[in-house]
Design a protein that fits this description.
The chain has 469 residues and is an alpha/beta fold. It folds into 2 domains: 20-174 and 352-419, D-Maltodextrin-Binding Protein, domain 2 (3-Layer(aba) Sandwich), CATH 3.40.190.10; 181-349 and 426-463, D-Maltodextrin-Binding Protein, domain 2. The chain has 18 helices and 11 strands. Strands 1, 2, 3, 6, 10 and 11 form a 6-stranded mixed beta sheet that branches. Helix 1 packs antiparallel against helix 14 (375-387). The relative contact order is 0.19.
Length: 469
């Protein structure tokens, strides 16, 4: 997914600045040595006087150094990230310089090609990571051994493979997400006597019932600046998995079958049976065309006032509900898994993540990479977010304690990611070449929702596939 899909530019009504020292204290308690073993002794200037810094001695004394980060994660979601770095700064002496930008996808390649990349970038699409690696030889540094060890120990093969290019690990996962969700209001369902559907057909029956009751069942928004259109890519990917299964999905993502294969045509038409149905959308927001102009941040908010009842979006959408929203099994908002279509196919979970790509192999950069790949950082980040009352962030790091997350949907998502019995597939557009996954696929889906037919849309995307990929 683009930044909005995995790291997501998530915005909600602003709140007063929380007390950073509280989050820092919690982070210091949680932070410790990861599975990595970075050479070096001592610590930052604080290490001698702060016993909580003892675990950071593995990273060495990095006093006077600085590490720059470039990312799409902006206010207010940047605050817990920045707070989670404080233990590393305090105990090693390094300075972490954070830069968030809504133009990340467009500007990162420009900076890399100009020879002025950041030390670290949080890349939200494996396809973009592969493009950066292959088109700029030597620019992206292979992950150091400490990071490889952490990824081998704490992450599933699905995530390791997504951060690798030609068998070499370049990016450890950072934040991760579960995408195969439909958001709803348990309180609104209870008031109307609606029940959570267990199959796609039951979901259509529920949609028809809501329509018959005078409501609009679905609401959606796909506007996201340069990334407009990405929420529709998730829709198509989930339906491809549920109609055709993971093997056909893999063939489609790798271009072993064409983008406009008839199975893809049928899947997109199924998406259209919901999102292009004027009886179904766009509850509380307008007509079908309003989906293209409604921001993805606003797309699910009508759930809270009963003008819509269903909104397909990843777990990170929790961050967009107003402060104080009861996100729980019996609350104002919660989510259920997008139901199966074909009982013969395994119910596969669509997942996404950002990846930590480094453009420098200086010791302080490698040390910070190791910290970010450790369970200690994942737990520090979770606690920092919880202290600020933020929802919607989690990690696929198996060392993450779900109890450190802030609400039931985050905990449920973490448990899903840690469940070895689950079948996962990575977000398809994120795996595709950047010219498709974060360009023509987004544009094509936007044209499709505003009136272009399925065949022309998929053919346009198929013709954009790079010949060398």
């Amino acid at each position: 997914m683009p930044a909005p899909k995995s790291g997501s530019i998530l915005r909600r009504p602003s709140r007063g600045t929380a007390v950073a020292s509280a989050a820092l204290g919690l982070s210091l308690v949680l932070a410790g040595c990861g599975g990595s073993n970075v050479a070096g002794g001592g610590g930052g200037n604080a290490a001698a006087s702060n016993p909580e810094c003892a675990a950071f001695s593995q990273y060495g004394d990095l006093s006077g150094t600085r590490v720059t980060i470039y990312t799409s994660i902006v206010s207010p979601e940047d605050e817990p990230h920045i707070n989670s770095y404080k233990p590393f700064e305090e105990c090693t002496g390094a300075q972490i310089v954070y830069e968030g930008s809504k133009e990340f996808e467009a500007q990162l390649p420009v900076r890399v090609q100009a020879g002025s990349p950041p030390d670290i970038a949080y890349v939200p699409q494996p396809g973009l990571l592969k493009t950066l690696v292959t088109q700029n030889p030597g620019a992206v540094k292979p992950a150091p051994q400490a990071v490889v060890a952490n990824v081998d120990q704490y992450y599933s093969e699905t995530f390791k493979a997504a951060g690798s290019v030609d068998g070499t690990l370049y990016g450890a996962p950072l934040g991760s997400n579960v995408k195969s969700y439909v958001w709803y209001s348990p309180q609104a369902f209870a008031a109307k006597g609606y029940t959570v559907p267990k199959t796609w057909d039951e979901m259509v029956t529920l949609s028809n019932r809501i329509t018959a009751d005078g409501g609009k069942p679905w609401c959606a928004g796909i506007a996201s600046g340069d990334a407009t259109g990405w929420p529709l890519t998730d829709w198509l990917e989930d339906v491809m998995l549920r109609e055709n299964g993971p093997e056909v999905y893999d063939q489609w993502v790798s271009h072993a079958i064409p983008f406009n294969d008839q199975r893809v045509v049928r899947a997109l038409d199924r998406v259209g049976s919901i999102l292009k149905n004027p009886q179904y959308v766009n509850g509380g927001l307008g007509d079908v065309a309003s989906i293209a102009t409604t921001t993805f941040q606003d797309g699910g908010l009508p759930l809270l006032d009963g003008t819509c009842y269903l909104h397909r979006q990843a777990n990170f959408y929790a961050a967009n509900f107003p402060e104080g929203t009861d996100i729980s099994e019996n609350g104002q908002a919660f989510a259920f898994e997008l139901p199966p279509i074909n009982p013969a196919q395994p119910q596969t979970i669509l997942v996404g993540s950002e990846f930590v790509a480094a453009f420098s192999d200086r010791p302080e950069v490698q040390a910070f990479q190791a910290y970010l790949s450790s369970p200690e950082w994942a737990n520090a980040k979770a606690k920092a977010g919880s202290e600020l009352g933020q929802s919607g962030w989690l990690s696929a790091n198996t060392g993450l304690d779900p109890n450190n997350l802030s609400n039931p949907i985050d905990k449920l998502s973490a448990e899903i990611l840690q469940d070895e019995s689950k079948t996962f597939r990575f977000d398809g557009s994120d795996l595709m070449p950047a010219a498709v996954g974060s360009a023509s696929f987004w544009r094509g889906m936007t044209d499709w929702i505003t009136g272009q037919n399925t065949s022309d849309t998929l053919t346009y995307i198929e013709e954009s596939w790079p010949a060398s990929s």
